[in-house]
Amino acid sequence: MMFSTTSAFIMITLAATATALEDVGVYIIGGKDASVNKYPSIVQMEERYGGKWKFKCGAVILSERTVITAAHCMLITYSNGNYDDVKPRNIRIRAGSSKYEKGGHIVDVRNYQSHPNFDEANFNADIALLTLRTRLPMSNITKTAFIVPSGLELPNNHAVQVAGWGRTDSSNHSEDLQAVTVYTVKHDECNRLHGGKITENMICAHDGPPYRRGQKNACYKGDSGGPLYMHGMLVGIVSSGSKNCTEQPAVYTKVSAFTNWINTNAV
């Protein structure tokens, strides 16, 4: 299925220490309360733990039957470091709500597929498509996202918006959707700051330089899988970062590297 892209973006002029990449979530530093009226394509992905449904990741609506998220959101990580796949029956989507684990429209997941090149070690190709059991009703608070054209490279130091329900401090998730504007970071610079772990399938963004704590950013632990928007178009998926929070750019899956895969595999 072909999903909506914004051709106007083709007219845009395109122009340190080693750390391990970590599950970043959107521990949104410096964010402000937002609404699904402004970000109607963002949804919550919940997982069933011991009979109770709990927020796990952010995700984004691509069609009435498909949402997109980070591939590492589809893994269960055990204390010994081993992984296992989440069962589709234990995943559901909450759409059309700005509130954490409250309200909105609930839809079960029929199945999902992670990108075949996803690497748990470095989060390369950290992208997955979820097929919903029933159609999501479209409205002013549940809308499909425009996705970036294949191969489009974002300009450096360009404003982008990240949204999610991740922690705004070291302990608590936000009860309300949060959003913040950050700026794209040059690939070579981000790769240096992350010790050579940034691939061509990744985008970096931050409020720096200089890179220091207390700035606006997406950070460690929270709701990975959420959107990175540029002028309302989905350009990235929240993927990974560092435990030092705002001291390094957050890392996002570059959607333009996977547009063709999305169009081929989504419904």
Write the layout of secondary structure elements.
Elements: E1 22-23, E2 32-33, E3 42-49, E4 52-61, E5 66-69, E6 75-77, E7 83-85, E8 91-95, E9 105-114, E10 128-132, E11 146-147, E12 159-164, E13 178-185, H1 187-193, E14 202-206, E15 227-230, E16 233-241, E17 250-254, H2 259-265
Parallel strand pairs: 11-16
Antiparallel strand pairs: 1-16, 2-13, 3-4, 3-8, 4-5, 5-10, 6-7, 8-9, 9-10, 12-13, 12-15, 13-14, 14-17, 15-16, 16-17
Domain Peptidase S1: 28-267
Protein name: (diamondback moth) hypothetical protein
GO molecular function, one term: toxin activity
Describe the protein:
One of its GO terms (biological process) is proteolysis. This is (diamondback moth) hypothetical protein. Fibrinolytic activity; shows preferential cleavage of Arg-Gly bonds in all three fibrinogen chains. Contact with the caterpillars causes severe bleeding, due the anticoagulant effect of the protein. 5% of the residues lie in helices and 34% in strands. The protein is mainly β. The protein folds into 2 domains: 11-36 and 145-256, Thrombin, subunit H (Beta Barrel), CATH 2.40.10; 42-144 and 259-265, Beta Barrel (Thrombin, subunit H), CATH 2.40.10.10. A 6-stranded antiparallel beta barrel has the order 12-13-14-17-16-15. The chain has a 6-stranded antiparallel beta barrel with strand order 3-4-5-10-9-8. The longest helix is centred in the C-terminal third of the chain and has 7 residues, at 187-193. It starts with 21 loop residues before the first strand and ends with a helix.
